[in-house]
Specification:
With 267 residues, the protein is of the alpha/beta class. It has one domain (6-221, 229-261): Alpha/Beta hydrolase fold, catalytic domain (Rossmann fold), CATH 3.40.50.1820. The protein contains 9 helices and 8 strands. It has helices at residues 42-47, 72-85, 98-109, 131-139, 144-148, 152-160, 167-177, 207-217, 251-262; strands at residues 6-10, 13-20, 25-29, 51-56, 91-96, 114-120, 195-202, 235-243. Helix 2 (72-85) crosses helix 3 (98-109). The longest helix is centred in the first third of the chain and has 14 residues, at 72-85. The model has no long low-confidence stretch (mean pLDDT 95).
Length: 267
């Protein structure tokens, strides 16, 4: 498995990425404070049948700290630019939590380059999280950097960051971004590519929000019929016993997602 770190310059910043496997491209986007390692064994499982491009988002992981505010919209532009820079006409995108929001914005802003989209533990509006999740985001500030230095997230950052002293920059940028209100519900029905939503049944995203998301896509509105004529191209999976803190590491995640990525019958 290739583990060489590559850097690409897009929109005035540098993004670090790693490539695993061969085949059709799948861009993999991690959650907040993390890096591609956040997907654990799922990287190898996904790379068995495709080329996985694990990107470290703005100021995260291998990506040098960027001198600009962190916004879902600008990061979506970054991923679109990266896909084009790597020479792909289109690519599948799979994002977890923060990475899911970035993947969603990429699909909204650049639908022509997103072949299909997998959103893991992702909301389409900030109010979609459980209230305790948003309360936790609201409680974070620049001082959170010092507190998180005792966490596994900081230990993982130290292993890959080009400049470990930039940890407070990452934390400041991210906690600011997480407090911004958003509601992208008007954009969801316009998504033309196949979309798969995955959450855990004990996630930071309540099942009711995932169902609402699925319905906005046009899924779950009628019986599929015996010949599946009433089925849409979209999928919804709720993994049993999975939380927001382990769904990214569970092999059940890739087991659910791979058939969707491999399905050639989507119209």
């Amino acid at each position: 498995m290739q583990t060489k770190t590559n850097l690409v310059r897009v929109n005035g910043i540098e993004l670090g990425y790693q490539v695993f496997g061969k085949g059709k491209p799948l861009v993999l986007l991690h959650g907040g404070f993390g890096s591609v390692e956040m997907f654990g064994p799922n990287i190898a499982l996904l790379a068995k049948g495709r080329q996985v491009i694990g990107v470290d988002l703005q100021s995260h992981g291998r990506s040098p700290a960027a001198d600009r505010p962190m916004r879902f919209e600008s990061m979506g532009d970054d991923i679109a630019a990266l896909i084009r820079e790597l020479g792909f006409e289109r690519a599948a995108i799979m994002g977890f939590s923060l990475g899911g929001a970035v993947g969603l914005r990429t699909a909204i802003q650049h639908p022509d380059i997103v072949e299909r989209l997998v959103l893991v533990s992702t909301v389409f509006k900030r109010a979609g999280w459980h209230p305790e999740m948003t309360a936790g985001m609201d409680a974070m500030g620049p001082e959170t950097a010092q507190f998180l230095m005792q966490s596994p997230m900081y230990e993982a950052y130290k292993q890959v960051a080009p400049n470990v002293q930039d940890w407070p920059v990452l934390v400041r940028q991210l906690v600011e971004a997480l407090k911004i209100e958003y509601d992208w519900s008007a954009d969801i029905p316009r998504l033309s590519m196949p979309v798969m939503l995955v959450i855990g049944d004990a996630d930071g995203v309540p099942p009711s929000h995932a169902v609402e998301f699925f319905r906005l896509l046009g899924g779950g509105l009628r019986d599929a019929n015996w010949d599946r004529s009433g089925m849409t191209q979209h999928r919804l999976a709720i993994l049993p016993g999975a939380t927001h803190y382990d769904i990214n590491l569970a092999p059940a995640l890739s087991a659910a997602v791979v058939p969707f990525l491999d399905d050639n019958d989507f119209r």
